[in-house]
Amino acid sequence: MPNIDSILRDHVTLQVESIDRIYLNGYLPGLQRSGQLVYFLTTHRKNPIPSPALLGQITRRFVEAIHAFAERAGIPIVEFKPGERKDDVAKARLARFRGKEGVVFIGVAQEADRAFRSVKKRGRGGRVDFDFYRAKVFVNHYYFYILDRDFGPGFIKFSSYAPFAVRVCLNGHEWAKCQLANRGIGFEALDNGFLSCAEPATLQRLCDELCAKDVEKFFRRWLARLPHPLSRQDRAAGYRYQLSIWQMEMSLTHVFDRPLHGRQLFEELLRENLDLGRPDRIQILFGRRVQRNTPSSFRTRVVQYGVLPKLSVEYKHSRLKQYFKEGRALRTETVINNPYDVGCRRALSNLGYLRTIGRNINHRLLALERTSHNCIISSRTFQSVVLPSDADGQHAPGLRFGDPRVMAALAALCLFLPTPDGFTNRMLRERVAALHDPGPKPYSAGRMTYDLRRLRLKGLIQRLPAKHRYVLTPVGRRVALFFSKTYARILRPGLARLDPNLAPNPADLLADAWRRLDVAVDRLIQEANIAA
To answer: What is the pTM of this model?
Structure first.
């Protein structure tokens, strides 16, 4: 049987850690509130009334500048159709682009934005005035799809209405490809990753060198070349874009020597998550989109090809995922959709800190998966768990191996192994109740409190400071996995196969060996003349 730890140790030809996609928010700090907008229109631009018509004039001039820019440079303007995948359009046009650097095309799409809206009001003496507020509106957004000499493909998206928000999308793997190409180092691409590289150490060093200054340099250079919604006088007065991190993906890729080993690894990952802890759902992603008008029908059967196994762990707005990339590599990826989820501000200067957090999360998941296939514990640890003991002067009842309630609690803990923020009494109680039949009396909160105390005194879990939440200790992870796997995969099915009331099955080697052992022991007893 393949082992996750041995596959990752013996059958990986390339390992690369890199920032994957970076999605940035560009904003004008002086145009975020209604009061700032009024100041901009009246005091800065010296208009007597902060009329929304002035914003319409800025929008019109900006759109005219975009069309003039496209006409001068011969850049096509493409209107995205509803439901059309923008990445597919960009990939097709990028393949036909012959330049080494430049704007490939400009895409237009009507999308939601939180822009300024106004309410007309009458002031003193019948003077007309306006109140502004931010609300959801649908306005045109202009995508500048760019091929950059340092970052490769990416895009900068402008909202056409105040406060003229900007989105920037870049990819750290494409950055690394450009750096390798500039140095003349050979590599083989795997979509937005690497299948092989002539100098793996140099590749990893380049991936580690990508920093906030490189991203800032890219943005400023292209901002100076593209049409801008504000004038030069506005920018000279301090109305300049600042970047913040909207989304960041930190990836760890293991390329296998043979696709077979990747499939074996994911089969083991699926197996671990199917019977340990009983997850709410197992998702299988089909290799094609399934819509209402998709021909043919779908039936339940053994899946062999055309699907992509995927493991996903969600935490607040962010998530951790693993998937089989193009049938060749294991991609482990932390997607931070909100830096505040991990206690970090959105400023671009925190890019390096978020990379460290994402790297640690990826390694923690892989270490946990390796432990799941190497979770053996010592006899001393086993005895300390199953026998009564004293911890800090408190009596700790034993967690007896094979006890249905104990096994249900440990199996439920397997579900919470990768949970970064711990679990509560209620969360664990719902899991244990689904795995354990307590009889006429329900599995109550009081029983769960008692079991949590046993687990804590045995050192398997610990309580988070100032919170009613718990996390597993390193020993607790091993014990939960070892007890659950031994009971669910060896003891329970093994005893069922050795049931003497079942009809003999010659193909079952375990049952056949047990019957032969039983016969041999009976013969030995008879020869000793002590048989009943």
So the answer is: 0.78
